[in-house]
Amino acid sequence: MSTNRKNISISRNGFTLVEMVIIAPIVILLIGGFISAIVSMTGAVIASRASSSLAINIQDALNRIDLDVKASNSLLATNSITPLISPQGYNNDTTGFKNVGTNGTMLIISSNATTGNPLNSSSKTVYWSGQPNLCNSSQVSSNTPVAINIVYFVKNNSLWRRTILPSGYATASCVNGALGQPWQRSSCAVSTGADSCKTQDEKLLTWTKSGSFAVDYFTSTDPVNPIAAASIAGNTDDVRLAAIKTASSIKATITATSTVAGRDVSQSGTIRSSSPNTGTTSNSLALSGSGGGTWVYKRPITVTNSSGSALTNYQIKLSLTTAALGNPYTHIKTDGSDVRFMDSNVTTEYSYWNEAWNNTSTSTIWVKIPSLATGDTTINMYYGNPSATNSSSGDNTFVFFDDFRGTTINATKWTELDTKNAINQNNGLNLTNVSTAWDSALISNTTFNRTVGLAVSGSFTAGSSVTAPCHMMVGWDNNQNTDPSYAQLIHGFYFNAGLLYPMYENGASYSASGTYAANSTNLFRVRLKSVGADYLDNGSVVYSGTGGNFTTSPMRIAIAQYDHTGTFNNIYVHQSAATEPTHAAPGAETAP
Question: How does pLDDT run across 348-383, given as a tens digit for each residue?
């Protein structure tokens, strides 16, 4: 039997289980790879765009810095506008800004406020009203400009730009011939609408991972190596500022890294900007005792003469306080040795004497002003030169002066009649009780013609006891230097056993008023009139009369000693109007 075999074709759809086990992973891998490629390409595009955006933002920030530097007056180590009003400070309080320190690197710029965008050539400088001219005056350009500070700083992974305007700018700025507000607006982290925070700070750049902001300063003679002292956080503000003032250019560098689409993108940029901070304005002042340094700050002081007539070579007493200058005084050397005074036209330096300096309280300085017209006169106070040496001089400030420094009585100034050694000098003129008569005196070698308003003033600290016997007299003496008796004093201020202040004129008493205590310091003044004199104790007139109608001239000044104890701290002759000139608090701090 034969058998016929036929091929049988079997038709089927899909994959068998075995085939699926083999093929599915391959398909999955292919799909995953495709998706991964798409994601990778998308991430790369996103990262590339983020990197480009970061680079653009960095360059925009650097360009903004370049424009601000070129339009500025000077570069600073700290904000020059003080005190800051909360929340103007770094921590949204009153914390100041420093170019280097615990809060990182900052760029601090001083500029003048303007009537419009400073890049527009038609914009003009904004000046303070009344310093000294009103806004509608043709001389308003001689007023003090309204200075602003621009600060670049890093906080919360961002680079910020803050604008700080001084207190009072909103109501005392001259804009196009009238009171107005500058084009610039003060800024803070959050706008409060107040004059100190009109708008929000500008956020120039943000990063998510890391970033840095660096500023280097260069001199014109070494444009390669940065000025190290300008950026050492351990240096004092004044030392850093002095270094910054030598810079002719700066280099600002920004680096930033952000994580985008799982990738770190980094960019950096640098710009070199010419600095106006050459110190030419300060150097041109040619102030005394510069020590090779320059003055980088000034404040205007308005002096008001209400005496009714112009005053010549007048010594005005200035009181400087922490309310105006900060506590301690901001940007001024601890000992005040860098303080100087000039006229508002910056042509004449004024002599001055620093009577008492306390940079955490009130300081007293006498300034000799050649001419004081009736009404207001503006003088400028300069400071901020860490290299300056002391130029305080009583001899240059007053008609006659002695603060009795050292241990020897100055024989060129005084004739000493003192056989009993009752008067001695040891950083003060000391009186001792070794006599029983008016037989010791110190009489000036200089003679003075009677001039209305000419005064002899000084400071006397009484001894530990003012009980009788205790007698001493000081004031205007006859033109002689041989008789130590009190009877020679034409107008004498009598310290008499702590009980009274009798006013003696040519040996006769005409008034008795007040007391003084042991160890107390009294500021005395005897001011000449055409007839007689005014007698002032600690600024108050205690006797004003003609007494014996004396018109004696010329005269000398004298200290007549009987048996009082105590110390003369100083004595000086100066101009003194019946209505003394007054002065306002120092105005806003600006560059010179």
Answer: 899 999 999 999 999 999 999 999 999 999 999 999
CA distance 465 to 488: 26
The span from the CA of 359 to the CA of 24, in Å, is 85
- pLDDT tens per residue, range 110-140: 888 999 998 888 888 898 887 667 888 888 8
Among 4-18, 262-276, 397-411, 534-548, whose mean pLDDT is lowest?
Answer: 4-18
Domains of the chain: 52-274 (no CATH), 282-391 (2.60.40), 400-575 (2.60.120.200)
Which pair of structure tokens corresponds to residue 533?
């004199």
Cα torsion through 221, 226, 232, 235, rounded to 10 = 0
> Do residues 387 and 242 make contact, with C-beta atoms less than 8 angstroms apart?
yes
Q: How confident is the model at residue 39 (pLDDT cuts 50, 70, 90)?
A: low
Q: Which amino acid is at 491?
A: H
8 Å CB contact between 256 and 58: yes
Tokens 């994580």, residue? 259
pLDDT digits (tens, 9 = 90+) for 558-583: 999 999 999 999 999 999 999 999 99
d(CA 291, CA 169): 35
Dihedral sign for Cα atoms in the order 220, 221, 222, 226: negative
Q: Could you tell me which of 347, 351, 361 has the C-alpha nearest to residue 316? A: 351
What pLDDT score was predicted for residue 278? Answer: 43
Strands 454-462 and 423-425: unpaired
> Is the Cβ–Cβ distance between 78 and 219 less than 8 Å?
no
One-letter identity of residue 159? L
406: DSSP letter: S
Let me know: does 54 contact 258? Beta carbons within 8 Å. Answer: yes
Distance from the Cα of residue 3 to its chain's centroid? 124
